[in-house]
Amino acid sequence: SQQGEEDPQALSIQEGENATMNCSYKTSINNLQWYRQNSGRGLVHLILIRSNEREKHSGRLRVTLDTSKKSSSLLITASRAADTASYFCATLQGGSEKLVFGKGMKLTVNP
Amino acid sequence: DGGITQSPKYLFRKEGQNVTLSCEQNLNHDAMYWYRQDPGQGLRLIYYSQIVNDFQKGDIAEGYSVSREKKESFPLTVTSAQKNPTAFYLCASSPEGGVTNEKLFFGSGTQLSVL
C-alpha cells in the first residue's frame, strides 16, 4: 500500500534555482527517508529524518518533517543538471518492519 | 568493490515459463528485499528476508517465490502464476531489518519483459 505521496509529480527548473519537493503520509512513522533514482537505475539513499527531528541538512539537501501535518519537504539548493532524476520519499511506519515508498517525483534541471 | 549485484540486466520470459532473477550482496547485510517498479509508479514490496533461511511476504507476493539459503544471496523467481510480470525489479539490502531499518542499498535492477 502506498504511504507517502510526493508533490508535485514533476518539476522543471533552471540550473542554479532551488527545488522543493513535498511528501505527505497517513500513519505515524519511525522515520522518513528520501531516495533518488536516475533513469533505469537503482535508488540511492539521500537522507533520513527521524520522527523526533524537525530538520536535517546534508550538503545541498535540507529536509524538514512536520509530524503534526504528516508531511516532509526536501529542498535541493543551487540545483545542477546532474540533479535531474526521480525522487522518492519512503516511510518506516510505527511498529512496522517495512519501508513504504511513494510514487516519486521527476525533477528536471535545465542547463 | 562492495555492493549489490543484480543479474541479468534484461530478461525475457515466454508464456508459462518461470524465470529467476539473481541478487548478490557482499556488504554483509542481514536484511534483503525485492521490490517491483512499474512505469511512473513507486516501489512495491514483493518479499523480504531479515535473516538466513527466513523470509516474509510483502504486499504483492502472489506469483513470486524466493529463497535465502545464504546471507549474500536472495534470488527471486517469477512464476507462470504471475500474469503481469513486465516490470523493473529492484533488489535491496540493509545492515539490519525490522523497526531499526534506516537505509536501503539498491542494486541496479533487472528489466523483465514478456515475449
Describe the structure.
The complex is a heterodimer of chains A (111) and B (115). The mean pLDDT of chain A is 91. In chain A, the strands form two sheets. In chain A, strands 2, 4, 5, 9, 10 and 11 form a six-stranded mixed sheet that branches. Chain A contains no helices and eleven strands. Chain A has 111 residues and is mainly β. In chain B, 37% of the residues are buried. In chain B, strands 2, 4, 5, 6, 9, 10 and 11 form a seven-stranded mixed sheet that branches. In chain B, strands 1-3-8-7 form a four-stranded antiparallel sheet, with no helix packed on it. The N and C termini of chain B lie far apart (35 Å). Chain B is mainly β and 115 residues long. Classes of the chains: A mainly beta (111), B mainly beta (115).
Could you provide a short overview of the structure?
Chain A is mostly beta strands and 111 residues long.
